[in-house]
Design a protein that fits this description.
The structure is a single chain. By secondary structure, the protein is an alpha+beta fold. It has two domains: 210 residues, FAD/NAD(P)-binding domain (3-Layer(bba) Sandwich), CATH 3.50.50; 92 residues, D-Amino Acid Oxidase, subunit A, domain 2 (D-Amino Acid Oxidase, Chain A, domain 2, 2-Layer Sandwich), CATH 3.30.9. It contains eleven helices and 22 strands. Strands 5, 6, 13, 14, 15, 16, 17 and 18 form an eight-stranded mixed sheet that branches. It has a six-stranded mixed sheet with strand order 8-2-1-12-21-20. Strands 3-7-4 form a three-stranded antiparallel sheet. A hairpin with a 2-residue loop joins strand 9 and strand 10. Helix 1 packs parallel to helix 4, helix 1 runs parallel beside helix 7 and helix 10 packs across helix 11. The longest helix has 21 residues. It starts with 9 loop residues before the first strand and ends with a helix.
Length: 386
């Protein structure tokens, strides 16, 4: 295959939130791209999964598109606690000097907003309902093999969705998801409760049901067998088990909707760059949902990658020269978030007395030491910064 000019459009593999945001960020730097995704925009927009966006992610997305106001639910407070331990940390907007810590939005509504922005940008071409089969590398280019279409040549392939041919292992945990009706806490409050089964999160949802109650999205991580058992319990029995894990302090769970279970995989690539292929977002790592860091890490990937490629293109250099600096600059943030999401669930699940004591001390320290709480909040909102 012949060499391709460095100013030719880059290939972005994956039209999810990270891939679309990357395309828009590159366009702001004058870099053209073609985005490939196996789903139609209608299929992607129908996805009802709830996403938790950190303040940093909201700022990143806000730079490239406007999110519909009715689709975004602010997170103004996060309460962190552990079953059976003293200590309870409350992280509020004052800890990040802003009006909110982040927000929730449905996957489909985020995709719809980003897709509308890409459709109106002359530097971005969308090719949906097109499945990528393989990527072949050459010294000066890549060739994207497509299902039912002619191959596509580009200077770089930016893979932003899925871990490709990485081996699939058995899931160590499953996530049980449901919408619940609650009272006793504010609509803008999220809870991260560590149980012996696994972390349990309650995330704000838009609809207020009555003057005294509102909806939250429940994400409860646990052993797959436990998740299967709890998914088919009667509502009354499930609520009894859920209430026993949440404890008191005024929070009441009044009702639960339909429940679904999803397997959780934790995988990460050792190398983010393979010559002219670079991996980011879910193509680089899939994380445990504790603290909601997966998408936020991927969006930070997209900012750094767009900056590095944009600078190379502005200097009329081959954009491949930007990739190793991208990989180097992502090491610290990636390592910190991988460690946090891998170690935290088991740290809070163990009943070993010395570790239980450390848990209580740690939560108490977060509660009473403002600087420690602010640094922890900044890590969750913005990642590792230098």
């Amino acid at each position: 295959m012949s060499a391709i000019a460095a100013e030719a459009p880059l290939a972005i593999l994956g039209g999810g939130p990270v891939g679309l945001t990357l395309a828009l960020l590159l366009a702001r730097r004058g870099v053209r791209s073609v985005v490939f995704d196996a789903r139609s925009v209608e299929q992607a927009s129908d996805d009802r999964r709830l996403l938790a966006l950190s303040l940093g992610s909201l700022q990143t997305i806000g730079a490239v598109t406007d999110l519909p106001r009715g689709a975004v639910t602010p997170i103004r407070t996060v309460i962190v606690s552990s079953v059976g331990q003293f200590g309870r940390a409350v992280i509020g907007k004052s800890d990040v000097a802003g009006e909110m810590l982040g927000a929730t939005i449905r996957y489909g509504e985020l995709i719809a907003a980003l897709s509308a922005a890409t459709a109106s940008n002359d530097l971005i071409s969308m090719r949906r309902s097109v499945r990528v089969l393989a990527v072949q590398q050459f010294p000066a280019s890549v060739e994207i093999e497509l299902d039912g279409h002619e191959p596509f040549g580009a200077p770089l392939a930016l893979s932003a969705e899925g871990l490709g041919q990485a081996p699939v292992e058995s899931a160590s945990q499953s996530a049980l998801l449901a919408d619940v009706e609650v009272s006793g806490i504010d609509a803008g409050t999220a809870c991260e409760r560590f149980t012996r089964d696994g972390p349990l999160a309650l995330l704000p949802l838009p609809a207020r049901l009555s003057a005294g109650s509102h909806r939250k999205a429940l994400v409860w991580c646990m052993d797959p067998a436990q998740a299967d058992r709890r998914s088919v319990l009667s509502d009354a029995n499930f609520l009894a088990e859920l209430r026993s894990q949440l404890g008191g302090r005024g929070l009441q769970v009044l009702a639960v909707g339909a429940r679904k279970c999803y397997p959780l995989y934790q995988r990460a690539r050792d190398d983010l760059v393979e010559h002219r292929i670079v991996y980011l977002g879910n193509a680089a790592q899939t994380l445990h949902p504790v603290a909601g860091q997966g998408l936020n890490l991927g969006l930070r990937d997209s900012v750094i990658l767009a900056d590095q490629i944009g600078a190379a293109c502005a200097a009329e250099a081959d954009p491949v020269k930007a990739l190793h600096e991208y990989a180097r600059s992502r090491r610290a943030d990636r390592a910190a978030i991988l460690a946090l999401t891998r170690l935290t669930p088991s740290f809070f699940a163990t009943r070993f007395a010395p570790i239980a004591a450390v848990r209580s001390i740690g939560l108490t320290a977060l509660a009473v030491v403002p600087n420690l709480r602010r640094e922890f909040a900044r890590l969750l909102m913005f990642g590792v910064r230098f």
